[in-house]
Amino acid sequence: MFMLGGCSNVPKGEEDVFPPSMNAVIHINGTDYPMEEGNYEWSRKKGLETEVVQTDHASPNQMADNIEPILLTSDQKVEIKIEDNPDISVYLWNDQGREKTIETQADQFTIPSAKGKYIYEVLAKWKNGTVSYTFVIEVE
Q: Would residue 14 count as lying in a domain?
């Protein structure tokens, strides 16, 4: 008779949660604000096959219509905090689409000094997935 036992620190059933839901916030002046999840694509090996889940979600400028802007004064720092530290790219959006890439240092950037509403997309890339997050800032 042969018996095999094992232990895991992953709660039962949690390893089967697919696609994963990653915690994503922006941190400004000591406060965390959630980002809205948009498009995503995840893949994982399942036996000899690869399982892929992909969504087609509204664009960040469409999503912004339903997102409450974060009211800030000019030139404040925004820190992006996403679970499992993915590679990130940040984009500023306008009515036509992506306007420009925002340079970040250590997952941080400074908001503009001009008053107005700014729509940002954070594109997060992990080994097995990509998620688009959106947040809106209004500079007073």
A: no
- Half-sphere exposure of residue 135, counting CA atoms within 13 Å on the CB side? 22
Measure the CA–CA gap between 89 and 101, rounded to whole angstroms. 7
User: What are the pLDDT digits (tens) for 14-41?
Assistant: 557 888 999 999 999 999 999 999 999 9
Would you say 94 and 52 are in contact if contact means Cβ atoms under 8 Å apart?
Answer: no
How does pLDDT run across 51-69, given as a tens digit for each residue? 999 999 999 999 999 999 9
Domain of 50: which CATH number?
2.60.40
Residue 116's domain comprises 22-139
What's the per-residue H, E or C state across the chain?
Answer: CCCCCCCCCCCCCHHHCCCCCCCEEEEECCEEEECEEEEEEEEEEECCEEEEEECCCCCHHHHHHHCCCEEECCCCEEEEEECCCCEEEEEEEECCEEEEEECCECCEEECCCCCEEEEEEEEEEECCEEEEEEEEEEEC
